C-alpha cells in the first residue's frame, strides 16, 4: 500500500480541474502588444473569431471582447469569483452600479449570491511597450443557505495581502502570498500569516471550512514543506504552472501539472529546475451538496436553475446602467474601487 501523500497527478488542462468546494480555475497569461487609441491591441485582429477568441494567436486572445480584450457583461448566481491579477489591469463594472480598476497583485473577491451581472475588461494602457496580463480566476461554490445572499465585492489590494518568506537550510527562499487560509509555517520559525477577511457569506468565512488560496514562488533549488491542513476532511490541490521541474514528496514532476495531495500530511516541495517555480494551492472542506450548473449559474437542483433563468430574463439581475457594453475606465492607471452606494477606496 502506497504511503505517498500524492493522490492524483495529471497534466494541466484548460480550465484547470478543481475539487469541491472549488468549481473552476482558469489561468490567463497573455502577451498583449502595445495598446492603440481605444486601449485595445495595436495589431491586426484578422484571423480571430471576434467575440469568441480563445486562439492565443501571437500569444494572446481577445476572449469575448471586440475592441478591448476581456469579458463584456455576463451574469452569475450561486457562487463566488476570486480574481488574482498578477500582471496588468482589469476594469470591473457591475449591475449594482459598482466599478473598479485593479491589478498588479490585487485580488477581487465577488460574491454573486442571488445574482449579479458584471464585465471584466483588460485595457491596454501602454502605447509604447507591451501590456502583459497574467491572472487566475477561481470559482468558489456557495452552500445552499448562501446561494441567494446579497451580491458583494471585496478588494484585497496588493500591499495588504500577507506574504510569508521562508528560507531553507541553504538560504533559498519560498514566498507564499496568503489570499485565504491562515498559514502557520514551522519552516519559518512558526511564523504566521493571517489572511484578510473574506466576504461575509463566503464558504471561506466559515471557521470549519478550512479554505486556503495561496500562491507560491520558489527560488531555484528551494525547499519548502506545505504544512498539514487544520480541518478534518479537507482536500488540497497544488497546481504547478511555471518553472522547469519540481519534486513533490520526493516524486519528480517534470511538466506542469495538477496534483491532489493528502491535506492531513505535510508535503515537501523542492524546486529541482534551474529557474523560479510557481504553484497555486487550493484547499477546503467540501460543501458536499449537489451541484447543478448551467453556464454561469450554479445551484443545487434543476428546478433552481430553471428559476434562475426565469429570474434573469425578468430582472436582468438589476440591469445594466452603463452606456457602453464593455466599459473601460479611462487612461489614468490609478487603481480604485467604487462600491454600490458610492463608497470609494484606493490602494
Automatic annotation (TrEMBL):
Residues 323-347 are annotated as: Disordered. Residues 214-318 form the Pirin C-terminal domain. Residues 326-347 have a biased composition (Basic and acidic residues). Pfam families: Pirin (PF02678), Pirin_C (PF05726). InterPro entries: Pirin, Pirin_C_dom, Pirin_N_dom, RmlC-like_jellyroll, RmlC_Cupin_sf. Residues 64-140 form the Pirin N-terminal domain. Belongs to the pirin family. This is Pirin family protein. It comes from Rhodoferax sediminis. The lineage of its organism: Bacteria, Pseudomonadati, Pseudomonadota, Betaproteobacteria, Burkholderiales.
Amino acid at each position: 500500500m502506497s504511503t505517498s501523500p500524492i493522490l492524483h497527478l495529471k497534466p494541466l488542462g484548460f480550465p484547470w480541474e478543481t475539487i469541491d468546494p472549488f468549481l473552476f480555475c482558469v489561468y490567463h497569461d497573455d502577451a498583449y502588444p502595445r495598446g492603440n487609441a481605444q486601449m485595445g491591441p495595436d495589431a491586426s485582429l484578422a484571423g480571430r473569431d471576434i467575440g469568441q477568441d480563445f486562439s492565443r494567436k501571437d500569444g494572446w486572445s481577445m476572449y469575448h471582447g471586440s475592441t478591448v480584450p476581456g469579458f463584456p457583461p455576463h451574469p452569475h448566481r450561486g457562487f463566488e469569483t476570486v480574481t488574482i491579477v498578477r500582471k496588468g489591469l482589469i476594469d470591473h463594472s457591475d449591475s449594482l452600479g459598482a466599478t473598479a480598476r485593479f491589478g498588479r497583485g490585487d485580488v477581487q473577491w465577488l460574491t454573486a449570491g442571488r445574482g449579479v451581472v458584471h464585465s471584466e475588461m483588460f485595457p491596454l494602457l501602454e502605447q509604447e511597450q507591451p501590456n502583459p496580463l497574467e491572472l487566475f480566476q477561481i470559482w468558489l461554490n456557495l452552500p445552499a443557505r448562501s446561494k441567494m445572499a446579497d451580491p458583494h465585492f471585496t478588494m484585497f489590494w496588493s500591499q495588504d495581502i500577507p506574504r510569508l518568506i521562508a528560507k531553507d537550510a541553504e538560504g533559498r527562499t519560498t514566498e507564499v502570498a496568503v489570499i485565504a487560509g491562515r498559514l502557520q509555517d514551522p519552516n519559518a520559525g512558526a511564523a504566521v500569516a493571517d489572511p484578510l477577511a473574506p466576504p461575509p457569506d463566503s464558504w471561506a468565512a466559515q471557521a470549519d471550512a478550512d479554505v486556503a488560496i495561496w500562491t507560491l514562488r520558489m527560488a531555484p533549488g528551494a525547499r519548502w514543506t506545505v504544512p498539514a491542513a487544520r480541518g478534518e476532511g479537507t482536500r488540497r490541490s497544488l497546481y504547478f504552472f511555471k518553472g522547469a521541474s519540481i519534486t513533490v514528496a520526493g516524486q519528480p514532476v517534470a511538466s506542469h501539472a495538477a496534483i491532489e495531495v493528502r491535506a492531513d500530511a505535510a508535503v515537501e516541495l523542492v524546486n529541482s529546475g534551474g529557474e523560479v517555480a510557481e504553484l497555486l494551492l487550493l484547499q477546503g472542506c467540501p460543501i458536499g451538496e449537489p451541484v447543478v450548473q448551467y453556464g454561469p449559474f450554479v445551484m443545487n437542483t434543476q428546478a433552481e436553475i430553471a428559476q434562475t433563468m426565469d429570474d434573469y430574463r425578468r430582472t436582468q439581475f438589476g440591469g445594466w446602467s452603463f452606456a457602453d457594453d464593455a466599459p473601460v475606465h479611462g487612461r489614468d492607471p490609478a487603481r480604485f474601487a467604487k462600491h454600490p452606494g458610492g463608497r470609494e477606496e484606493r490602494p
